[in-house]
Amino acid sequence: MRERYFLFGVVGGLANST
């Protein structure tokens, strides 16, 4: 279930980047 965290990290990073 590490993929879930990875996806969340990518999404969070992108949202934080904006």
Short description:
The protein has 1 helix and no strands.
Task: Explain how this protein is built.
89% of the residues lie in helices and 0% in strands. With 18 residues, it is an all-alpha fold. It is rod-shaped and about 25 Å long. The mean pLDDT is 87.
Task: Compute the number of helices.
Answer: 1
Instruction: List the uncertain runs.
Output: none
Query: Main β-sheet: number of strands, strand sense, barrel status?
Result: none
Judging from the principal axes of the Cα atoms, what is the shape?
rod-shaped
What's the rounded overall pLDDT mean? 87
Secondary structure: helix percent: over 70%
Topology, number of strands? 0
Which class best fits the helix and strand makeup?
mainly alpha
End-to-end gap: 27 Å
N to C succession of SSEs: H
| Radius of gyration over all CA atoms, rounded | 8 Å
β-strand percent reads under 5%
Please write out the topology.
Blueprint: H1 2-17
What are its keywords?
mainly alpha, 18 residues, 1 helix, rod-shaped
